[in-house]
Specification:
Layout lengths: L1 H28 L2 E2 L12 E2 L2 H19 L5 H24 L3 H17 L11 H21 L6 H15 L8 H20 L8 H16 L14 H5 L1 H16 L12 H7 L4 H22 L4 H23 L14 H12 L8
Antiparallel strand pairs: 1-2
Length: 364
Amino acid sequence: MNAYWIIFAVTFALSLGLTPLFRKIALHSHFMDTPSGQLKKHTAPIPYMGGLAIYFTFLIGLLSALVLTPTPDSGKILALLVGGTIVAILGLTDDLFSLSPAVKFFFQILAASLLIVFGVKLEFLPSHPILGSFLTIFWVVAVTNAVNLIDIMDGLAGGVSVIACLGFVLVPFLGEQSYVPLTAAALGGSVMGFLPYNYQPAKIYMGDSGALFLGYVLAGIALGHGYTQVNVVALCAPLFILGIPLYDTALVMVLRFLKGRSMFRGSNDHLALRLRVLGMTVPQVVLTLWALSISLGVFAFFLARLSEKRALVLILFLFLMAMLFTIFISSIPVDEGTHKIRESPFRVLLNSTKKSSPSRKKKK
């Protein structure tokens, strides 16, 4: 266990140093997130590239760990790195050019398929390999986008991801799947070093390059085994560890579907934004959701260690609490008008250059 805390500390220190460097690069290159629409309410442009700081920290930390102490699961770790690189580039491209959902889903499915090839997949359906592969792809794509969807408030996605990483270090039983605690510790430290710059008031955003990358790696980590040594019900433990992003995504998608609205256009119907309607400040909302994420991680820890009957009682209790909470949270009135589709930073820069050009004269 000590080795995992060492990699956590190393990646934390590295990220703490790399994040301001990438902030300077973003400022110099005018790679900024400009306020627009109903969701982007920050008062001034904020630099992107926080996601690249997280990615490179994770990459350097994990490769260094593999060189120093090779593991039997090095192939699975490399698959996560390659797939994570694909998703990070996809997110960066989306930050720059605003890709369509179809393009993003295509590359996410490609990256998820790569995990299956290297053996990172759901194994509880050995007699139905095709169904198992389909569910693996669905899981990876769902978690990838779920983490991206909660990246709407300073420190929210990063903090929840750190808590999830710690959950994946502590909840599973350590065994042959050594890539789980190792990659979770490296990712957790990478995001932890980014958080001081992202907590309100944020000095840098992770962007889609960071949020999609975090979701993808967390989805791959969750596919590691080691939950069901005491009871088979503990197979649900990753659902609790990633409970906040998964719940928010399910809430938003179901409510939008019931109201006949597009599931791919952002609006103010997210869990965090509904809590803001209650009068909570951004830090209060973020800390509340961090606390809920920690609570769900604790539930996951006990779920993996209780007898099967007690684990079922725990799940039933959490299900009832979730239903009551959903009834309450969905009754909060929100302005559900979809926000303006953001322009890419390149287009914003191009438009501003054209407007300021002295050679362009207004026609009389």
